[in-house]
Amino acid sequence: MSKPKIAIVVGSTRAARFADTPVEWISKIAKSHADIEVEVVDLRDFPLPFFDEVASSAWVPSQSDVAQRWQKKVAEFDGFIFTAAEYNHGPTAVLKNALDYAAKEWNKKPAGFVGYGGVGGARAVEQLRMHAVELQMAPTKAAVHIVWADFLAVRQGEKKLSDIEHLNQAANGLIEEITWWAKALKIAREADVLAEEAKAA
User: Which of 46, 40, 43, 45 is nearest to 5 (CA)?
Assistant: First the structure.
């Protein structure tokens, strides 16, 4: 079996976003795990309109060229780690919109989260886990929560994320869990394809 391919999705597009810092940090840790391939996927590269299709792409092909390109990109991966900024006790609108603009491309793949904000983005992450379930993903128990004190220390240049050992431990735990699920679900999806091919033969 080929190595599972994991996307680290940058879940904010603001000019002043913090997301680049945890993305760089967790990407480096993930790339040290030799049994997965890792790619950063930036939502800035997919300027999706706010959802304006006649229906979900689960039922009707999307008309937006950007949406079609986004769906093809999502389909390339076997698992996802999303950065989750918390705005008003929820995830960013741009990330929720990106989730809504794909359907079957998410199915039967693991989803993990790196949250940050007042309580480490926990409320945003909990909402995203519910969205992931509806998209037939497998959200992991393990997550990274960059709480406000750590966020400020990093934002103000007093520390780097890599200096905070409990975050390094959480990141490795998340990556190990994503990797396990990505391998297991990749095998299961491939078995489904073979079963369908056998039926059609």
Answer: 40
- The residue behind tokens 């926990």 is 122
Residues in the chain: 201
The alpha-helical segments, DSSP class H, found in 19-164 are 20-31, 65-75, 93-100, 122-134, 148-155
Spatial CA neighbour of 178 closest among 153, 142, 154: 142
Spatial distance between the Cα atoms of 109 and 135, rounded to a whole number of angstroms: 10
The series of mean pLDDT values per 10 residues for the chain, 201 residues long, is 94 96 98 97 97 83 91 98 95 97 97 95 97 98 97 96 98 98 97 86 74
Least Cα distance to 26 among 35, 14, 38, 13 occurs for: 38
The tokens of 182 are what?
């990505």
For residue 197 the two structure tokens come to 């091919």
